[in-house]
Design a protein that fits this description.
The chain is α+β, with helices and mostly antiparallel strands. The protein has helices at 11-15, 37-54, 68-71, 75-79, 82-92, 102-105, 152-160, 220-226, 233-255, and strands spanning 5-10, 26-32, 55-57, 63-65, 96-98, 106-112, 129-141, 145-148, 170-173, 179-183, 190-192, 197-209. A hairpin with a 5-residue loop joins strand 3 and strand 4 (63-65).
């Protein structure tokens, strides 16, 4: 399988040291995808139709449609595509599975210079691995994915102290239609550079490790900040009981002398 790569940075390259809490050494990779243009066009059309009713901005200056596949069922064609999973696993170097909590497994984000959209501020993801699939990019100025070189804790302290992040500590990736960005953005500080012109609409599909599903920073508090109705809590708790805890116990048992 040959995949055209536009940009690639390993996790250890970005952070500057070996990492323990990770699914692999995947940092971020931008690659040409082969998804059906008609399918992506349909998802874009429906996203625009339902944006006013279902998109909301609650934290981190991110305006997005939650649980997107429930509103646009055709997203499931991508979310559970064996070919897409095969490519993602090849690029990440580990077995993956779609993120199981529906409220966050698929989302559609709206980024622009308009206050109602904005651009997501410096943060680190809760979910382990994300694929960003641009559905539409119109006349952009700004909007690049920016990653902090170094420890996320260090970077977040600097950012939230009001310090300007030096350019030599930033990796910048310009989004392109026809190309996905696959990133293990958990515990990597990153943001969308604020846009001064144009807009981008992006389908985000999330993954986690199939063998170590407990490697995950998506705490209930983190989820509740964007989804305060707690309708997802039963699915979350059941996943911890049925998948995360047994996998964790197997892992520590295998590591015991």
């Amino acid at each position: 399988m040959t995949v055209e790569i536009a940009a690639r940075h390993s996790r250890s390259e970005i952070t500057g040291y070996p990492n323990y809490h990770q699914v692999s050494d995947l940092g971020v990779v931008q690659f040409r995808h082969s998804y059906d243009d008609d399918l992506l066009g349909h998802i874009l059309k429906r996203a625009l139709e339902i944006k006013e009713m279902h998109a909301d901005k609650r934290q981190l200056n991110l305006n997005y449609i939650r649980d997107a596949a429930s509103h646009i069922p055709e997203i499931n064609d991508l979310l559970h595509s064996p070919r897409r999973m095969e490519v993602a696993e090849k690029l990440s170097g580990t077995r993956l599975e779609p993120y199981p909590i529906s409220i966050i497994s698929s989302i559609i984000t709206f980024t622009s210079a308009r206050p109602e959209d904005g651009a997501i501020t410096w943060h680190a993801d809760g979910v382990p691995v994300t694929e960003l699939i641009p559905l539409s990019i119109i006349d952009p100025q700004g909007g690049e994915l920016e990653l902090y070189r170094g420890s996320a804790d260090e970077g977040l302290y600097r950012a939230h102290s009001g310090e300007e992040i030096p350019q030599d500590r930033i990796i910048s990736i310009q989004h392109r239609e026809g190309f996905s960005v696959l990133g293990q953005l958990m515990r990597l500080m990153h943001r969308v550079r604020p846009m001064t012109r144009g807009y981008r609409i992006t389908l985000n599909l999330n993954f986690r490790s199939a063998e170590k599903p407990f490697i995950d920073d998506n705490t209930m508090c983190y989820l509740a900040a964007d989804n305060p109705d707690f309708e997802w809590q039963n699915a979350y708790i059941e996943d911890v009981k049925a998948r995360q805890l047994p996998a964790y116990l197997r892992s520590i048992s295998a590591a015991s002398p």
